[in-house]
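Worked example 3. Consider a protein that binds pyridoxal-5'-phosphate.
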Amino acid sequence: MSKIWYPYAQMKNLDVQYKILKAKGTCLYLDNGEKLIDAISSWWCVIHGYNHPEITRSAKQQLDKMAHVMLGGLTHNPACSLAAKLVEITPYKLKHVFFADSGSVGVEVALKMAVQYWHNMNQPQKHKFLAFKKAYHGDTCGVMSISDPDDGMHTLFKDIIAENYFLDAPEHGYPAKEKYLVTDLEKLDDFLRNHHYELAAFIVEPLMQAAGGFNFYSAEYLKEAGKLCDKYNVLLIFDEVATGFGRTGTLFAADQTKTSPDIMILGKGLSAGYTGISATLASTEIFESFYGPDESNAFMHGPTFMGNPLACAIALKSIEIFERDQYLAKISKIESVLKKELFKISSAKIKNIRVLGATGVIEVKEKSSLAGIQEFAVKNGIWLRPFGNYVYTMPPYIIEAKELKMITETLSKFFKRL
Ligand SMILES: Cc1ncc(COP(=O)(O)O)c(C=O)c1O
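Given these inputs, the predicted complex is written out as structure tokens:
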């Protein structure tokens, strides 16, 4: 029996056959001498591909200074510079950064911040959250309570975790037609009108619900949702763990919504997949509610590895390269190729094909249609990991046109065989 307990799998049925010896650029190198193009950027984080020479050099330089030091009562340049950079590049309300070590913990931090903000504002009854059905915000207990309670993978825990509210996710694609927007926004308006007194925040994955089923929805919706949250005095939280750093075509999905959330969470691409780090950014209004002479207003959170200098140095270099090498143009090219090539694929088994930024998704009618697709892709030199009714690609942004073609052709060939 395996000593490693692998994720999201029945261990009895699991046979992990692929052992990676090294990774470079877009490719994973296996112990059997084969190489695979990683079409999903190691769960969407390896935005510069693997072992980018400049990032690796920065990591080594930082290691020579210090790999780690606690952020409790101490500070250091990599954390100070990264906080300043994140405040500079994120939406206008966000001015303060709380570091943690993973996306899930970053979202937990956001939830705690929102609840305590209302407590500090003498409205402790505002401690519930509104989230979307199909949402996925991570695997820890607090975030399970704002992830889809029925169709998500955490249904088992439904009755023992905090009870929150869920709204039907807007399902009319990106961008949505005016008439659908109106109905979706009416539902939100109704809900906020009836529940604002008990709501701390509305939390969303902006533009793209990722692991809950790759639902793309309109920037207009979020723009108007921001206004409604202001009207009803409910905080707006953007979980950009998956969408941040270019995945939907702009640096942040928030950039397309022309609104600023009160809290935003970054993870995954923040460290370009080198190491675990997340950042929860908050507005000055939130920060100031914790600020003052009263110790009991302090934010009682502090993961051991928060602001880890190695992770911060890596994140700074990653952002520098992203800006310097015009990654948004690269992402736009990836989007064009994905649209051109994926939209050509046709099969009676397919329900929908959609592309947004550097994300391409094929949704099938029956999950069984995707049986064998991972083995088929590996035979064609591609690493894919479908789930449920979805097979998708979220390639590293450094991918060459011919490599991207290999991914789309592999998908095309798979569906032709069915
Ligand atoms: C939107 C979103 N939030 C949070 C998380 C959790 O991040 P992590 O796996 O780093 O804990 C994920 C992971 O896929 C995610 O997609």
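Take a moment to read the result before moving on. The radius of gyration is 21 Å. The mean pLDDT is 97.
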